[in-house]
Amino acid sequence: MWSLHEVDIVSQPMIRIEGLTKSYGTAQALRGVSFEVPRGQVVGFLGPNGAGKSTTMKILAGFVTPTSGVAQVNGIDVSVDPVATRRLIGYLPENNPLYEEMMVRDYLDFIADVRGVPKSQRQTRIRSAVERCGLGSVLGKDIQQLSKGYRQRVGLAQAILHDPDLLILDEPTTGLDPNQIVEIRNLIKDLGREKTVILSTHILSEVQSTCGRVLIISEGKVVADDAPERLTTSEGGSVTVVLASRSGVPLRPEQVRAVLEQVPGVTGVEGAEAEGGDTLGFSLRYGAEDIRRALFDAAVRNDLCLLEMKRRHVSLEETFRKLTGGEAARSGTPARAEPEATPYAA
């Protein structure tokens, strides 16, 4: 049986952010960001450069102090007790600072010491991190000798050495080749089975294959929060059709276009490739409502034969661009670089 205290801890969201703001002089990086992340969820944190992603993650990790608002990890306020919250967090910043002159083995032993891993558990923890991150073949090498992919693996290993409840990963696949991206992505998915993970990345396919939830931030505000598949379906898409006459009377493009434009939910009609002969092709844009049933009914009423119908959802990239597009152009000034941070404070 769990105690009431244990039940209360389990019911706490791993991350709670409410009304978070951060200003660098006159530049406002965060403008009232609020969200919660329950235990065991893998969240993709998206936004254009300068939108406030890294600032939010650094506040969670205790390396940047918010101007106002609340940031909690497992119910602990980061601003009140940053040391306690850091013990719960594994952090891989975008620049992945490493001591390149150290051997991988020595570096991990050093990080375990800094993180306060008990000596009796240290070798077990290091061995586990090495196995999970695939570092066995490079333990005796200096970090400066490693490829970018292996350096990222070392960064992930240091982030999980102390068995944290929460992993904060800022652009973990930046600069990797396609094979390395797949390897790191699989590792993150594996870690996500037992940890809460918040993942910032510009690779949207990575989010779709790894994350169960997407947060999109733009100009310091959360503009979307949902599952990847719901984000794309809610934004609509297009249906491509190939039509023929059921009666044998040649189709007149302008008349068929007029019929299609009257289908409920259709927001635009354009010509598309047909199959030749007496067929016509069209591409129909639609919003959140699925138009396929209404389209079929309209074809029947107007003596049209639907030879082909293909639906295409709006992609996550298109949704992202719609929600964040034109940010730099509207501001007229380049985004302020966010201060660097090091992940080694215990």
Automatic annotation (TrEMBL):
PROSITE patterns: ABC_TRANSPORTER_2 (PS50893)
UniProt cross-references to InterPro entries, sorted A to Z: AAA+_ATPase, ABC_transporter-like_ATP-bd, P-loop_NTPase
Domain ABC transporter: 15-244
Domain of life, per lineage: Bacteria
SMART domains with a match to the protein in the record: AAA
Keyword Ribonucleoprotein: no
Region (Disordered): 325-346
SUPFAM superfamilies in UniProt: P-loop containing nucleoside triphosphate hydrolases
CDD domains from the UniProt entry: ABC_DR_subfamily_A
Alphabetized UniProt keyword annotations: ATP-binding, Nucleotide-binding, Transport
Family under the similarity heading: Belongs to the ABC transporter superfamily.
Official protein name in the record: ABC transporter
UniProt source species: Cystobacter ferrugineus
